[in-house]
Amino acid sequence: MSKLIELYRYAHDILERIRVADGIAPLLLRLYLAPVFIQAGYNKLAHFESTAAWFGNPDWGLGLPMPEVMAALAAGTEFFGGILLIAGLAVRWISIPLMVTMLVAALTVHWENGWLAIADASSWLANDRVLESVERLERGREILQENGNYDWLTGRGSFVILNNGIEFAATYFVMLLSLFFTGAGRYFSVDYWLAKATGLSKDA
Fold first, then answer.
1. Which residue in 59, 82, 126, 143 has the fewest CB atoms around it within 10 Å?
2. Any transmembrane segments, and where (predicted)?
């Protein structure tokens, strides 16, 4: 028993020494998420009128109230939030509205499509919508093989059907939730150095 305790303490000491680099994980989360949100926000801002129309239309859009306000909030949160993630500034604070944005997207846009972002009938998460897409995909491939340069068209990857499920929104939400609790991370963020300079905390 004493040997096991000694081994555990040894392993624990190793892990404690590795903690000096624990800022790398939140840094990578931030750098992964930032371009995703910046691009999404930029697209909404660049096509603001059509975005607001889609937000507000109950027939072919989301049917949200005050669509211009909602579109502006979503676009601004994503675009400027992505910039803050890169800098590692106010990361815990900006994670909150970004998580709200992901929840709204998941519930209003993706929920009815199930989990999968790309239709994959072999997945145990495939729903009826995904299973039904198999026939459509096969027919599409047949049409392309008969009438198009199929080898060239598939030279950079296979054709797939976008299922547009909640997979990406849920994944981004979990990553943001992690940043909300861990903060921007040590050494590689403005939050860390501000906290250190003001004496509020050794860690951001």
1. 59
2. 20-42, 69-91, 98-118, 169-188
- For 202, the token pair is 């050794």
CA dist., res. 195 & res. 204, Å (int): 6
pLDDT digits (tens, 9 = 90+) for 103-142: 999 999 999 999 999 999 999 999 999 999 999 999 999 9
This prediction has a pTM of 0.90
Residue whose tokens read 């990361």: 91
Query: 30 CB contacts (<8 Å, ≥6 apart)?
Result: 85, 86, 88, 91, 179, 184, 185, 189
DSSP for 54-118 reads HHH-TTTS---SSHHHHHHHHHHHHHHHHHHHHHT-SHHHHHHHHHHHHHHHIIIIIGGG-S-SB
To which H or E segment does residue 2 belong?
helix 2-18
**3-17, 117-131, 163-177: range with lowest mean pLDDT:** 3-17
Q: Point out which residues pair with 118 in neighbouring strands.
A: 162
